């Protein structure tokens, strides 16, 4: 499997898991969704907002890649969140709608990435104002790993509230391959 094929797989996994996570979160009363449970970003809602904040920040950086990804063009008009704990939406419905839109853009963007794009060194500034230059492929894998990390926290918070997200393994979206003869 090529790296680009793996990126497309990760985008599919991302979209599948976010749909499951948001569907499960939607079964919690709004007060429980926003209640601080001592997680890195407080509540389920805070964690879901953080994932979106980070996604927007990274996708805006990725939009600066010389490949000029068309799927990321709509992000040019989206303001960069000011802080990693910024609450973009206090209610799950608009957050969920924006999540679906973002996941569609991520899927389209993943399909646009060429193997030759992955070697590019992306120059960006983080939220603390520190400048970095890192290989694009590594940043893309960090992007997906970050989502997985925080979705694990959100699914734990939901489980503690008595709600099970169900299967969360990447294995569930890896297609079966024909066996070798």
Outline the structure in words:
51% of the residues lie in helices and 6% in strands. By secondary structure, it is mainly α. The chain has a single domain (3-167), classed as dinb family like domain (Four Helix Bundle (Hemerythrin (Met), subunit A), Up-down Bundle), CATH 1.20.120.450. The chain has a two-stranded antiparallel ribbon. The two termini are 19 Å apart. The relative contact order is 0.20. The model has no long low-confidence stretch (mean pLDDT 96).
Helix proportion: 40-55%
Relative strand content: 5-15%
Total domains: 1
Query: How many individual helices?
Result: 5
Shape: globular
Largest sheet entry: 2 strands, antiparallel
Total E-strand runs: 2
Question: What is the CATH superfamily?
Answer: dinb family like domain
> What is the name of the CATH topology?
Four Helix Bundle (Hemerythrin (Met), subunit A)
Q: Give, in order, the helices and strands.
A: HHHHEEH
**So what's the CATH class?**
Mainly Alpha
Strand order of the largest sheet: 1-2
Q: Which structural category fits the helices and strands?
A: mainly alpha
- Uncertain segments: none
End-to-end distance: 19 Å
CATH architecture verdict: Up-down Bundle
Radius of gyration: 17 Å
Average pLDDT over all residues: 96
Quick gist of this model?
The protein has five helices and two strands, in the order ααααββα. The chain is mainly alpha-helical and about 180 residues long. It is globular and about 45 Å long.
């Amino acid at each position: 499997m090529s790296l680009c094929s793996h990126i497309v797989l990760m985008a599919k996994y991302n979209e599948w898991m976010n749909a499951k996570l948001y569907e499960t979160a939607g079964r919690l009363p709004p007060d429980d969704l926003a209640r601080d449970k001592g997680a890195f970003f407080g509540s389920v809602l805070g964690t879901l907002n953080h994932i979106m904040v980070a996604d927007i920040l990274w996708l805006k950086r990725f939009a600066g890649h010389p490949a000029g990804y068309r799927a990321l063009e709509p992000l040019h008009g989206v303001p960069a969140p000011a802080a990693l704990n910024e609450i973009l939406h206090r209610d799950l419905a608009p957050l969920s709608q924006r999540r679906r839109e973002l996941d569609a853009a991520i899927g389209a963007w993943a399909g646009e990435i060429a193997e030759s794009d992955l070697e590019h060194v992306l120059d960006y500034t983080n939220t603390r104002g520190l400048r970095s230059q890192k290989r694009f492929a590594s940043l893309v894998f960090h992007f997906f790993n970050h989502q997985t990390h925080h979705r694990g926290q959100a699914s734990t918070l939901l489980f503690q509230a008595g709600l099970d997200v169900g299967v969360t393994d990447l294995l569930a979206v890896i297609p079966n391959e024909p066996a070798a003869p």
